[in-house]
Amino acid sequence: MGADPIHPPILQVAGLSMRFGGILALNDVGFEVRRGSITALIGPNGAGKTTVFNCLTGFYRATAGRISLHAGRDATDLVRLLGQPFAASDFLNPAAFANRLYYKMFGGTHHVTRAGVARTFQNVRLFREMTAIENLLVAQHLRLNRNLIAGLLRTAAYRQSERDAIECAYAWLKAFGLAGDANRLAGELPYGHQRRLEIARAMCTGPQLLCLDEPAAGLNPRETDELSALIRQLRDEHGVTVLLIEHDMGLVMDLSEHLIVLDYGEVIADGDPGSVARHPAVLTAYLGTETVDSDA
Amino acid sequence: MSLTPTPLTSAAGPTAVLRQAVLEAAASFVLALLLLGPIVGLVLDGYQIKNELQRPLLIAALVALGRFLFTLALHTPSGRFWLERFSAHRGKTAILVQSDSDRQHHGWLLLLFIAGLALPFLANKYALTVLIQAMIYVLLGLGLNIVVGLAGLLDLGYVAFYAVGAYGLALGAQYLDIGFWTALPLAALLAALFGALLGFPVLRMHGDYLAIVTLGFGEIIRLVLNNWLSLTGGPNGIAAPAPQLFGLEFSRSAREGGLPFHEYFQLAYNPLHRFIFIYLVLFLVVCLMALVVNRLRNMPVGRAWEALREDEIACRALGINHVLVKLSAFMMGAMVGGIAGVFFATYQGFINPASFNFFESALILAIVVLGGLGSTSGVILAALVLTILPEVLRAFADYRVFAFGVLMVLMMIWRPRGLIQPRRRAFDVEGL
Lengths: 296, 432
Description:
The complex is a heterodimer of chains A (296) and B (432).
Chain A: E1 11-20, E2 23-33, E3 38-42, H1 49-56, E4 64-69, E5 76-77, H2 78-81, H3 94-106, H4 109-115, E6 117-119, H5 132-139, H6 148-153, H7 156-175, H8 191-203, E7 209-213, H9 221-238, E8 241-245, H10 249-255, E9 258-263, E10 266-271, H11 273-278, H12 280-287
Parallel strand pairs in A: 3-8, 3-9, 6-7, 7-8
Antiparallel strand pairs in A: 1-2, 1-4, 4-5, 9-10
Chain B: H1 14-41, E1 42-45, E2 48-51, H2 54-74, H3 77-91, E3 96-99, H4 106-122, H5 125-150, H6 159-176, H7 180-202, H8 207-227, H9 229-232, E4 238-239, E5 248-249, E6 259-260, H10 261-264, H11 272-297, H12 300-310, H13 312-317, H14 322-348, E7 350-351, H15 358-371, H16 376-392, H17 400-414, E8 423-426
Parallel strand pairs in B: 3-8, 5-6
Antiparallel strand pairs in B: 1-2, 4-7
Helix pairs in contact in B: 1-2, 4-11, 5-11, 5-14, 5-15, 5-16, 6-7, 6-8, 6-14, 7-14, 11-14, 12-14, 15-16
């Protein structure tokens, strides 16, 4: 799978460990996400799914491991973007030292997004007191004309950049069926619309890999079906790779082509939905085995 | 005890209303008696405590009567109407989204602008100083509004930047021989630099922690100014130069080689000229700043500030460098504070550290809160109200702080979003 040098997997995770004090939340996690696939990360509660997400999207600095993203031509090590402690070899190699120093000082989560990874959150995190369209404009921040002088004088270039951003934002609102909500406050929208708006906002950053943390949580069955169609459409028409955490097994089995199962911070199964569903370790993790004490 | 009566159905008869009123009045009577008994009932006279229990009884009776009448009034049709309006106000999110074409008040703005320009020529010296002070607070309010209202960073030490601006002019004039016009941009830059200095270490803090650090920063600046006698003159203060108009001075007789304003234009000397000039420059700067802040709000950086206020984590997930965004808000706010400081120094002619105490910071913060966090017109209105009203009500000067407190409490109940309903810009998407 990873041997194809022309189409390398978009994301390669190897030896990822995350330690919180005495708790080892992730232990040597490794997996790959194929470009253009819809991959699901599943597991019982507390298995470490969201921790993996937070490491991938730069909210946690992984204790050990490599996360490489093949978004552009070269691979980017997402762990490095967050800034790492100096290694002994850095003091001999000035280029590596400068690089390390740069990311130590200016690195952070925002670099991961700039590298092409966008995410949504388990509990919707919209800018509630801003309108829906403004939420999408904020997401395009990096592509806009941010020159203060140009903005204050409203130069032609600035106005063009704003117009483009509004058009792009409106196009995404339409694609997500939210066109009527453009000028409503995000916090006042119905819950289902808020969920969709958050995905639209993530798409506005122009990602190659879209990470969705429980996108169907709190949605009714009809809304879940719509969401499933929407995610497929994102992949087919906009060419993003989707990685999602989800508890709704119907959605996962229907949507995803590749499943990664986590339990107690370790990958216990990895493969297509059919084989994973029959995998003995997965059955044990979800249903328990007969040897387990029934009081537990 | 709740202010609003237990809802009675409209069918409830007059006896039920009367009973409720009597019960509530009795409860208020007991409460008032408990509260007031020890405070006004026991009077210390020499070494003895005199029993004056008829006084709390009288006051409690008045309170009970008031409560009785209030409850009855709330059940009249007009009372019910007010009660409904009151509760309706609290329920709404109360943010209005309006497109630019919906609010055509450019004519009004122009009228206000002309009125503002004409005002000093009609005012006497006292009114002029009040106006200048009001304008300085408008400027401060606009600056702090960027930090607190837009970016959501609670800054309790804003007065520090005001002091940096004021001392920038005074010290610059004393040691570097710079004038008002040179000091204006330099002090703004200096204040922005101080904003960055404060900003860097505190960027990782949120909410209360940030408030405490900024409070400390404000005190540090004041204490340094107070104690560095050899540089700042300490509590004795320092003189600040008056502005000049293309080298023309606003004094009765110019320093050697200079020409006073009134001689050049062959007018009779009038000490008001200086204040009128300061007011006009200040007014133009305030108008410019209001325009700038309004534009900033709709620019990418302004949206990033507001997004940061709403949710910092989501901001980071969208690729926004939250450190830079916070720093830009701090620096921009500090810069406006510095400009206000320069005007303050030049208008006073003399400054000392006592002008930059915590009460000033609190007052500026009150202006921003009263104006509604983030609303430009609201902040301007609040600054005018909070500076002009105390002057108009000079007769009640003893109760100023008390009235201030009452005003704040009432605001939080009735209009937690500020004097003016907050508005957001709606985007015209029909044509897309």
